[in-house]
Design a protein that fits this description.
Strand content: 15-25%
Helix content: 25-40%
Distance between the termini: 60 Å
Structural class: alpha+beta
Number of strands: 19
Length: about 400
Amino acid sequence: SLIRTRIRYLAKGVTVRLRDCLPKRYFHSCLMSDVDGPSDVEVLVLPGSTQPFSSCTRSSPASTSLNDNVDPIELQEMTDPECVSESSDLCSAAVEKTSRPDELQERAAPVGSVGSVQTTEDDEEDSLRHVISNRPGQPEGNDYAGNRIVTSKYNIFTFLPKNLFEQFQRAANTYFLALLIFQLVSQISSLNPVTTAFPLAFVLAVTAIKDAYDDIVRHRSDREINNRHTNVLRDGNFDTVVWENVEVGEIIQVHNNDFIAADLLVLSSSEENNLCYIETAELDGETNLKVRQAIPETAELGEKAETLAKFDGEVICEVPNNKLDKFDGLLEWKQHKYGLTNSNILLRGCRLRNTNTVYGLVIYAGHDTKLMQNSGESPFKRTATDRLMNYLVLLVFICSQCML
């Protein structure tokens, strides 16, 4: 997560990790999120003071920008007295660990615009996603997923072994298989093994047919979704392509009542103030429309393919995750950085409503989208009756062994 958890020493520009300054038992009580987006947890050392500001404080990135040229940040004091005292002591120790004053500025993290991504260490940089507009496959060496999705469990080669493995997780099937093996040995049993083999084969076959039918339905659904059409900007023109051929870094044109093919950053819209309206029924079941908006800087791109093809901004954002209502990133364009939030993102599975046209940059595709991150692999279904039968079969087996 790119929630900016920093301890800022405003007088000298020291940046200290939050976990160095707050005890673990108070960490969750001090780290909060607003409905509109993530919030910072900041303990400030005011200029001319030798002690940190004695409180766990909270500020919203939607209303705060930390720059030298802006007014002081409005802070809301928390009422936990233990958190106040302990955070003060720990922050003092953390600030004392820093090196001499002439090195403080070099180690300080840069402070950007509202909602911007702030990272100061190499491991944090490696965990970020970099998407360059109109340059699919860049930066080189990325392993970003394609837009093809697969929700089926089996294919023609894996169906038989995988399905049998799942079926023999039921203790009853395993018990009768073992019984069948013993009956095949004439020295052990005088019973005809057909009396056990036929019922077992019938149960396995019926279950396999049912599972195969369910998986064929999944294959058909995947094929239908992967072959939906959308307009993608390529070579200066919008071409109609199927969803599975959409790549990260491409610009997509979405029309009214169309489904969103991938997770997009809204660049511009045909509506006033560059607003667009989406329906998220397939994501959260809500049918009321939600509003998304392009940032003013990209809204100037308009709707012309020639202008959009020249857009070369780079989006730096969090790695794929399943948080539908959270997004934190920044756009680097023309030597400026612009903060991005969830209000600038269109998620795969949403449907555009009451908006003529929207243009968006693909950030996540395929199984990296938030919709697919929440889907997961189809689990092996086991009812409460199955679990009870497993215990009963195990009990019967133990009792029979004791009688012998």
